[in-house]
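Hi P.,

Sorry for the delay on this. The queue was packed all week, but I finally got your sequence through. Input first:
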Amino acid sequence: MEYTLFVVLAPFTLGILLVTGFLIRQNGKGPEAKALLTYFLFVSAYLLNNLIELLLPTPAATLTAVKAEHLFFSFLPVIWFHFALLYTGASRKVSLSIVLTLALFSVATNILIQTNHLHHLVWRRFNYFPVRGYLTMRADYGPWMWLYGVFMYALYIIGSFVILKSALGGNKMYRYQALVIVTGALVPLIFNLFYVFHLIPFLRKDFTPISFSITALSGYIGITKFRLFKIIPVAREKIIQGLDTGILLFDSGSSLIDYNKKAASLFNLDSNTIGQHFTEQKDLTPLTPLLTGETDTIPITIEGDKGKSTFSARLSHMESNDSSVMTVTLVDITKETRLLHEKEALADQLIEKNQELENAQDTIIQQEKLAVIGQLTAGIAHEINNPLSFAKNNYHIFRHYFQKLLSSFPQKTRESEALIEQLNLILGDSEEGTNRAIAIVHDLLKFSRPVRGEQRQLLNINKAVETCLIMVGSELRYVSEVVEAYDQNLPGIECRESEIDQVIINILTNALHATRKKSQLSMADYKPCIKIETWSDNTSVFCAISDNGEEIRSQDLPHLFEPFFTTKKRGEGTGLGLSIAREIIEGRYSGSIWVDITTTEEECKSKRFIFSLPIKNKNRKISRDIHENSNNFGRTTII
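Then the structure:
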């Protein structure tokens, strides 16, 4: 009865196997699909030979069919195990060489089957007997067949365990897939156990080939209902392995427990590093701040085949099965870092170019103002010089005739002598005022263009200061105390004396006006003071003129040296003094001039104008670091 049932069910089972194999070919393109398709083809060949075995008329033909059955049946456990590894992604941990080694056991089994008549390791003896027109064979198993049985059951059970374990960590779809696949694999194994160990006494025919119909149905359900090969657990593994992001897993003791392909290439990891503490791997030392809890994100630089790369390493914690797992992800930020550096460099260049543009604009404005001053100077000189010349000439003529007139008086009285003295004073003041007006026009001309014919010569700045003090002494005498502190060992500087005098006088005049204005506030405890200092270093000679007069407002500081800028009332100043001084010091002598409002001198604690001139006239700016040398200060004079 069971033989007839087998013959009836075999074609049906073969049809299901072929239909499911066709669905696998249509829906799966990966290696796991190819492995399962190979499995179904070997099962189909095994079933077909098992059917032929019943239909053959002679014992020799039956034995040939039995040997052909085992040619396919012996490889089924290895193919199934290989599929399980591919389906779960465990093939990364179990190499193909191991699978091929297992396949050698199946090859050896087939060789022993074909040569059984020489050693009887597979079958000890055969028994043939007809049953209702079918010739059947029963054999007593030899030691190799029992060993092969253990091998076969072990591979099926281990493969099923790998699939079920992988599905436990996935979603419901993966669990359903795994359950269906494992059911299809284990049902034929159970049927084989029933037959081999005679667990069903009345069952004389091995229905293991027919039970593979369950395997085919499981595959069909897995493909049509649970989208087998469309979504499988290995897809997640492939994604993780294919990521350009490095991933490392550490246990709570900071020992490495897993990594992906990218991380392996970055840190030269292999299977021997699994289970080792991170400190045992020299390449993992950049991750120390993360794994020791100092921080959760750090940038690291790794030297590779294509040069240095920058990665952002980030630590996160996961709880799994009552244990803590630390995950380190490494994202390549080389391009972003390079772009950031380029952006910062471009920003710096932009700031620099913008500053250069502003400086150029200021220079153009300055030059335009100076050009206007030059034009105004020429007009002023033309318009004022002629009247001043007339006044000066007429003054000399008047003095000449006045002297002649005095000589004609026969006798001088006390009253007449007093009158003459008074007139002489008036004439002297008039001469001084006329000369002063002529000097002002001359200074304007010197500002617009250097005096022709005046050559540069070595000048001691102390001498220039003393000369200027004499020139403005009459004004300073009744306004301010003057403190002089000179370095008596100053080197000479190459310059035109008239230009340096002009700078000193302009600064002194500003100091005078500042102290005078503050004195007008009638502050009882205010003592006007102007201090003049000179010193030198290895490159320059310095002169500083400070006063404790009216303070400079912070908003006025950037404009102090601009032409026409003045804080005086209209009509009291032209705003040219400091701009002329800067043009002479910086434009003609490559020196520097600036104002220091943070002085700490007790006797004159206020603003301080400083200019420097190079000892050797080099075309460069001088450092504004002030090296005061109080030991070299000379005399102190009160005017």
